[in-house]
Design brief:
Distance between the termini: 22 Å
Strand order of the largest sheet: 1-5-8-4-2
Radius of gyration: 19 Å
Shape: globular
Number of domains: 1
Largest sheet: 5 strands, mixed
Order of helices and strands: EEEHHEHEEEEHEH
Strand content: 5-15%
Structural class: alpha/beta
Helix content: 25-40%
Length: 231
């Protein structure tokens, strides 16, 4: 279901309201239970496409892999919204300006196919997310689309007995970010592309090694945003 609302759903420059957060396209399942959960979501989407004749032929191998990667990222990020205290509203860009552009910082879950997946998840028949489409205000500010898990999605998370430890992050291919100076106070600095040198390649290897150690380490968070035992 699409909800056209004139409430703030996230500024295009990533200024967030208290109840919102950015979509994390690097989420991935890290346990068998979470993997089966993601595959269930994928099968639900594919079944809906087949039932309503939305596809005339099977996706190519590369397209299928991209489709599954994007569904996985969305499902895992929404599952964490269910399992953790904190924002339940995730805002996400749907504009062609943000999707489908290749860069060293690009995510595999940031393709133009993303909008089609969101629309499928929000259909009345599936009803896995609630979605408020973004819009432009009278002052010219752009508000991004926001999504949140539906009660049906929450029940699925509960049925699979998931916890926050079932969800991890993919290792990002580019751990070094070069940013411009912020254009003004309160505005986000923009990422800048750059040419690789021996120095940047060495930095990247060092960062991957550090991140690898952090991923392998047992780190528990004991603050207020802890996973709930039930959904």
């Amino acid at each position: 279901m699409h909800i056209h609302s004139f409430d703030v759903v996230g500024f295009a420059d990533d200024e967030l309201a208290a109840e919102e957060r950015l979509f994390d396209p690097w989420r991935t399942p890290c346990t068998p239970a979470a993997g089966v959960f993601v595959q269930t979501i994928i099968k639900m989407l594919e079944g809906h496409e087949k039932l309503h004749g939305l596809r005339q032929r099977k996706r190519r191998v590369a397209d299928q892999a991209m489709f599954e990667r994007m569904v996985s990222a969305i499902a895992c990020d929404l599952a964490l919204a269910v399992l953790l205290e904190g924002p339940k509203v995730i805002f996400i860009g749907r504009s062609h300006q943000e999707l489908g552009h290749s860069s060293r910082y690009g995510s595999p879950a940031s393709s133009k196919t993303l909008t089609k997946i969101l629309d499928l998840l929000a259909t009345q028949q599936l009803g896995l997310i609630k979605m408020e489409l973004g819009y432009r205000t009278v002052t010219g500010d752009r508000k991004k689309t926001s999504i949140r898990p539906s009660s049906k999605f929450c029940h699925l998370v509960h049925d699979f007995a998931l916890s926050a430890s079932d969800i991890a992050e993919c290792q990002r291919p580019e751990p070094i970010e070069l940013k411009s100076f912020p254009p003004c106070q309160g505005k986000k600095a923009q990422l800048i592309d750059y040419k690789d040198t021996d120095r940047t390649n060495n930095f990247r290897l060092e960062m991957h090694e550090i991140n690898g150690h952090l991923i392998a380490a047992r780190i528990d968070y004991t603050g207020s945003a802890v996973a709930r035992q039930s959904v």
